[in-house]
Amino acid sequence: xxxxxxxxxxxxxxxxxxxxxxxxxxxxxxxxxxxxxxxxxxxxxxxxxxxxxxxxxxxxxxxxxxxxxxxxxxxxxxxxxxxxxxxxxxxxxxxxxxxxxxxxxxxxxxxxxxxxxxxxxxxxxxxxxxxxxxxxxxxxxxxxxxxxxx
Length: 150
What we know:
Oligomer: single chain
Number of strands: 6
Signal peptide: 1-19
CATH architecture: 2-Layer Sandwich
Keywords: Signal
Number of domains: 1
Domain DUF302: 55-117
């Protein structure tokens, strides 16, 4: 637990967030890729969020002699939040569970990227712009990525 508190505390040192026109949110993390993802996983597990997968794209690339730098994809969610979206439009199942990508950019900085739920699911015909679960998803993404990036 001390390591998690220390990791999150170190991550609080610096953060910036930008939202692109494509609905992507990007933040800087003061920690490395593994430490950033570890901090998110710990906070999510404490909050009762299910971690479905942790994909190490960097290791995958290395396994074929390629290098994409450090890069991990975290796949997580809560069926109580995601199921209503899927009930509204079954195609939402292509976008859920939620995902966050953490990687090292060409300058060595750790970046956190995710797609805004309203942008991601809003393109589906059955998901209303004012669906309550969109705010819940957005809040969770912001809270968990802020906690690992600041």
